[in-house]
Specification:
Layout (H helix, E strand, L loop, with lengths): L29 E12 L2 E9 L9 E7 L6 E7 L6 E10 L12 E11 L6 E10 L7 E2 L14 E9 L4 E8 L2 E7 L6 E6 L10 E10 L7 E9 L10 E9 L4 E3 L7 E2 L7 E5 L11 E5 L14 E2 L6 E8 L2 E8 L11 E9 L12 E12 L2 E8 L5 E6 L4 E5 L15 E5 L6 E9 L2 E6 L4 E6 L8 E6 L2 E11 L10
Parallel strand pairs: 1-20
Antiparallel strand pairs: 1-2, 2-3, 3-4, 5-6, 6-7, 7-8, 9-10, 10-11, 11-12, 13-14, 14-15, 15-16, 15-17, 18-19, 19-21, 21-22, 23-33, 24-29, 24-33, 25-26, 25-32, 26-27, 27-28, 29-30, 30-31
The structure holds beta-D-fructofuranose.
Protein name: Fructan beta-fructosidase
Keywords: Glycosidase, Hydrolase
Family: Belongs to the glycosyl hydrolase 32 family.
């Protein structure tokens, strides 16, 4: 389809290694971390990512590249950005420069990437992080590093990285949010090359248990309203021994006037994007067509605590499913809602649908059902049960467990017996999260993909993303209870691989 598409390895073993996700994005080979430069242009969703092309662990960072027309099927493209005399290519963003404000495109539009160049101050081992540009005139197929790089330096700040840029219509300026130690700094520009400091957000706000990384800032409607909107700032927190769960991503909801972000919540209120352990450095796509009103997020499905130890080869790490974001007013305030992009349903195979049945103690609704790439949709009345148990990726030896405790409104996730957990002492964990079942109605949407479980609870107000490494034989499913559960709906849909092109 694309002239520059990489030759796929023509083998039926393509994307069939142990643990290989079948409908999540993974690089063909080697190490990947943060999603970068996500931008939509001329009918394609671009995904760049932190990539080490020669190793299965982190190293000199490049930008790997893939494109998709539906956010589900991906086409791998050649590496977009390689380290040069200014250093490694760390995380950053990309925008469509529709009106050629940069002057790179001779009056036309084109793609500009804004990223961190990382090296050391000459003659020292002191890290130096400066912001640079690259641009593409051919739909992202080839990139030129701007000869005026770097365009933004701040020698007083050591951790100064991961610029996310967007066009702010009301002030007619580009805005950059960038991690600056344990705050986010905001800059503005008319041409993407000259940046002016606007404000700093974050001191005394939210969690400061780790270095701040990978910010994003965007506006979303509240409760699907056309006039009430709020700004959301995402901030990832690097792993520190004090953080029990390793690296995590927090968010703030507030107001933004083109220069300053003001948090609506109490300063010490911490809101997490994902309650699981394996969703980090996530940001959103730029330049999605306004008419669609969409804001789509994707994170790196791992955790700095153990990312380099996970037992996979020849690749390491996957991205989360792409998720649509919205805001909903709840009892505790305006909160982020995440739902998987609807296009994921295009890979559903015929499965099993249970409707209006009663499940009693001792029974397993999913008896005989199996799958390590499945989409589970549950709508249950749990008011006559203390406990509802969902077993995933199950065999005699292994099982990933989700258990709902209706009395305490908690969802327990347990991966202690999920499979290989030996590679890091933090991996075999259980966690318990508050999830409401209003009037006894428990709604869960769960995606299992060989080595990951993503849980969307309720309307998507509680999300949990966790890695697991079960043996291939562990595919059983269980839905059971200690009382009586009325099953309004339980749908089990096997999902097709999106990586089978080489075998076709
Ligand atoms: C986040 C991060 C970024 C940095 C990149 C380097 O995971 O640490 O702050 O730009 O990874 O690969």
């Amino acid at each position: 389809m694309f002239a520059m598409t990489v030759e796929h390895k023509a083998s039926t073993n393509y994307y069939r290694e142990q643990y290989r996700p079948q409908f999540h994005f993974t690089p063909e080979e080697n190490w990947m971390n943060d999603p970068n430069g996500m931008v939509y242009y001329n009918g394609e969703y671009h995904l760049f990512y932190q990539y080490h092309p020669n190793s299965n662990v982190w190293g000199p960072m490049h930008w790997g590249h893939a494109v998709s027309e539906d956010l589900v099927h991906w086409e791998h493209l050649p590496i977009a950005l390689r380290p040069d005399e200014n250093g490694m290519i760390f995380s950053g963003s990309a925008v469509v420069d529709w009106h050629d404000t940069s002057g790179f495109f001779g009056g036309e539009s084109g793609l500009v990437a804004i990223f961190t160049h990382a090296d050391e101050y000459p003659g020292t081992d002191k890290p130096r992080q400066r912001q640079s540009l690259a641009y593409s005139k051919d739909n992202g197929r080839t990139w030129k590093l701007y000869e005026g790089n770097p365009v933004l330096s701040e020698p007083r700040i050591i951790d100064f990285r991961d610029p996310k840029v967007f066009w702010h219509e009301d002030t007619g300026r580009w805005v950059m949010v960038i991690a600056s130690g344990q705050t986010v700094s905001l800059y503005t520009s008319l041409n993407l090359k000259d940046w002016e400091f606007a404000s700093e957000f974050g001191e005394g706000e939210g969690s400061h248990q780790g270095v701040w990384e990978c910010p994003d800032l965007f506006q979303l409607p509240v409760d699907h309203s056309t006039d009430v909107k709020k700004w959301v700032m995402l901030v990832s927190l690097g792993d520190e021994p004090g953080l029990e769960e390793g690296s995590k991503t927090q968010y703030f909801v507030g107001e933004f006037d083109g220069k300053t972000f003001v948090n609506d919540n109490a300063h010490d209120k911490v809101l997490w994007v994902d309650r699981g352990w394996d969703n980090y450095a996530g940001v959103t796509w730029s330049d999605l067509p306004m008419a669609s009103g969409r804001r789509v997020f994707m994170g790196w499905m791992s955790n700095w605590r153990y990312a380099i130890d996970t037992p996979t080869s020849v690749w390491r790490s996957a991205m989360t499913l792409p998720r649509e974001l919205s805001l909903q007013t709840t009892e505790s305030g305006v909160r982020l809602i995440q739902t998987p992009v609807p296009d994921i349903e295009s890979i559903q195979e015929d499965g099993y649908l249970f409707e209006d049945v009663e499940l009693k103690s001792g029974g397993n609704l999913f008896k005989g059902l199996k799958g390590n790439a499945v989409d589970l949709e549950l709508d249950l009345d749990v008011s006559r049960a203390n406990n509802v148990r969902l077993g995933l990726l199950k065999s005699e030896q292994e099982e990933t467990v989700l258990e709902y405790d209706g009395k305490n409104s908690t969802l327990l996730f347990d991966r202690r017996r999920s499979g290989d957990a030996s590679f890091h002492k933090s991996f075999a964990m259980t966690q318990s999260i508050t999830l409401q079942a209003p009037k006894g109605r428990l709604k869960l949407r769960i995606f299992v993909d060989w080595s990951s479980v993503e849980v969307f609870g309720g309307d998507g107000e509680v999300v949990l993303t966790n890695l697991v490494f079960p043996s291939e034989e562990s595919q059983g499913l269980e839905l059971s209870t200690d009382g009586t559960v009325y099953v309004h709906k339980a749908k089990v849909s096997p999902l097709r691989s999106v990586w089978n092109r080489a075998a076709e």
